């Protein structure tokens, strides 16, 4: 990687008794703003303080990797873990060596990782999560193994009932196969509390119809595009059972108009404008056809098609788009931990959301086609589980 997302990981862990009921917490912040992107916490059964602290650090590093971070600063109030990861102290306890090796493997996934000690007073968020996880391990009410940390709602209408098997492999007995450790009751109880994202590309514009690169140009919907928006709004309202918790949209007119139609059809859902959902900035390619771009920038276009780190002239790389799209999705998940939210955006941001949800490579970006007002559905759970239900459903689109 070059450039890319810079994050700060704050991690902590502990046990009630050392050894005793143990848990960890980790917070991932965007380095530039301090904004929390992800929170993770889990109870780990009976373990020592040091094992829990290492586990928190590993969870934080994994969360940073899941976000596609390039550079990571790890902050902990455990002097032992920080000094051992910096190579200044030997790892004498045999139980910590596999954990240190696991952390070292994760470290190699980033451009750069630093480890630094901070006083406990500066590690309050990770400490809070770790204490919640320890409470869960001790049998007290708490939320464990969570992402983005919100209070849980009641199980939604279509969540798995007792005896069902969900897409992440949790069985009807309440145990996860090959989990490698104890399963906390709070995790199993929270398995059905999903967030459903209904991803919708905007309706047709003149640039869409002419198959031109349409980035930041604020093209409006055609008459057919408005008909598409009306049709997709009815379909999304049906998928949501007549109620959306919210509609999040790119600020550009073609998305805003589509989002307004969705909100109206679903009983007046609140529309939230999210700047990070805007289309890729195609720079000098904006408004041009594929053939026109090939004629003028053939070599650059070839490189752009094979690397997310290459930008159009005066434009934006897909890697940069990916960073802000992940940031937007993280904000959305904090605001709406469960329920159903429609996301109205453009081809590039939606492909990046689907790439991440599918765990696919960058090759997906130029192989996946998303039609105007095509619908994709992604479910996610507080424990990190993801299920892609639908990709580019166009059954509702009216004939041209």
UniProtKB/TrEMBL annotation:
Compositional bias segments (type: Low complexity): 136-153
InterPro entries: His_Pase_superF_clade-1 (IPR013078), His_PPase_superfam (IPR029033), PGM_Phosphatase (IPR050275), RNaseH-like_sf (IPR012337), RNaseH/PGlycerate_mutase (IPR014636), RNaseH_domain (IPR002156), RNaseH_sf (IPR036397)
Binding site for substrate: 254
Residues in RNase H type-1 domain copies: 3-143
Coiled-coil positions: none
Record-level GO cellular component terms: cytoplasm
Residues annotated as the enzyme's active site: 202, 279
GO molecular function terms listed in the Swiss-Prot or TrEMBL record: nucleic acid binding; phosphatase activity; RNA-DNA hybrid ribonuclease activity
Pfam families according to UniProt: His_Phos_1, RVT_3
Residue ranges, compositional bias (Basic and acidic residues): 155-169
Region (Disordered) residue spans: 136-186
PANTHER family reported in the protein's UniProt record: BROAD-SPECIFICITY PHOSPHATASE YOR283W-RELATED, HISTIDINE PHOSPHATASE FAMILY PROTEIN-RELATED
Name of the protein described by the UniProt record: Bifunctional RNase H/acid phosphatase
Species: Pilimelia terevasa
């Amino acid at each position: 990687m070059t450039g890319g997302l810079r994050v700060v990981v704050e991690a902590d862990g502990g046990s009630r008794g050392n050894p005793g009921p143990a848990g960890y917490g980790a917070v991932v912040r965007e380095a530039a703003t301090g904004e929390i992107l992800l929170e993770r916490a889990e109870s780990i059964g009976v373990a020592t303080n040091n094992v829990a602290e290492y586990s928190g650090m590993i969870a934080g590093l994994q969360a940073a990797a899941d976000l596609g971070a390039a550079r990571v600063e790890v902050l902990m109030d455990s002097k032992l873990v920080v000094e051992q990861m910096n190579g200044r102290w030997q790892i004498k306890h045999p139980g910590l060596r596999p954990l240190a090796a696991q952390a070292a493997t994760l470290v190699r996934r980033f451009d750069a990782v630093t480890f630094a000690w901070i006083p406990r007073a500066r590690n309050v968020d990770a400490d809070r999560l770790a204490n919640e996880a320890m409470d869960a391990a001790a049998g007290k009410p708490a939320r464990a193994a969570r992402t983005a940390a919100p209070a849980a709602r009641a199980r939604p209408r279509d969540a798995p009932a007792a005896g069902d098997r969900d897409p992440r492999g949790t069985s009807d007995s309440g145990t996860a196969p090959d989990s490698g450790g104890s399963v906390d009751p709070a995790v199993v109880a929270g398995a059905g509390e999903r967030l459903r994202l209904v991803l919708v590309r905007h309706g047709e514009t003149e640039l869409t119809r002419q198959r031109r690169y349409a980035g930041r140009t604020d093209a409006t919907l055609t008459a057919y595009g408005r008909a598409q928006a009306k049709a997709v709004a009815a379909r999304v309202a049906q998928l949501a059972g007549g109620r959306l918790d919210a509609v999040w949209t790119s600020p550009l007119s073609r998305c805003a108009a589509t989002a307004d139609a969705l909100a109206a059809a679903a009983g007046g859902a609140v529309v939230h404008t999210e700047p990070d959902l805007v289309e890729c900035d195609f720079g000098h390619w904006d408004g041009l056809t594929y053939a026109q771009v090939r004629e003028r920038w053939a070599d650059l276009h070839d490189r752009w098609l094979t690397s997310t780190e290459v930008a159009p002239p005066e434009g934006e790389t897909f890697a940069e788009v990916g960073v802000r799209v992940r940031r937007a999705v993280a904000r959305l998940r904090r605001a709406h931990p469960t329920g159903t939210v429609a996301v109205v955006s453009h081809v590039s941001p939606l492909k990046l959301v689907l790439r991440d949800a599918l765990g696919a490579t960058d090759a997906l970006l130029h192989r996946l086609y998303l039609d105007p007002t095509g619908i994709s559905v992604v479910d996610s759970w507080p424990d990190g589980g993801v299920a892609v239900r639908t990709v580019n459903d166009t059954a509702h689109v009216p004939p041209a």
